[in-house]
Amino acid sequence: MLYQICARLALFVLLVGAVSAPSAHAVRGPRVCPVEQVTSIFAELDAACPCAAATSKREYRRCVRLAGKSIMKASNNTLPRNCLRAALRCGNQATCGIDGAVRCERGKSGSCVGGACQHDMAVPCATDQDCVLSVCDVRQSTKNCEDNGGTPVGLGSCCSP
Question: What is the distance between the alpha carbons of residues 149 and 86, in angstroms, rounded to a whole number?
């Protein structure tokens, strides 16, 4: 009796694994999408939804979402979904349609590991202060950006050049 229960349980686990395993034609990309690919996709989104033309944040986000669907359809669903999601996040985290908002850049201390910066092993370092990362986010105003130790760098998305 115990043997039958174990055999059925093992069969069930195998079947569930086979059903939930990704199919051969599923579009899977690397866990982290290459920056160049995200930038390229975002450039397409930016062309379809110009930031300057946005009258509201809601309208802009809707445009970006619809443009993303069109880009995926045009690629015959071969575009890695995680890359599209990363580009859509760029659009969602933009100043477009928000009065007074700015992109804000500030420095953030990184980690020095074994004489190289952890975020970029090609950058030599002696201390963590040698590994300053540039962080960008959207702030409601220039004053808010400066009050938080940042430098206002204009409008658009942090993914914009």
Answer: 26
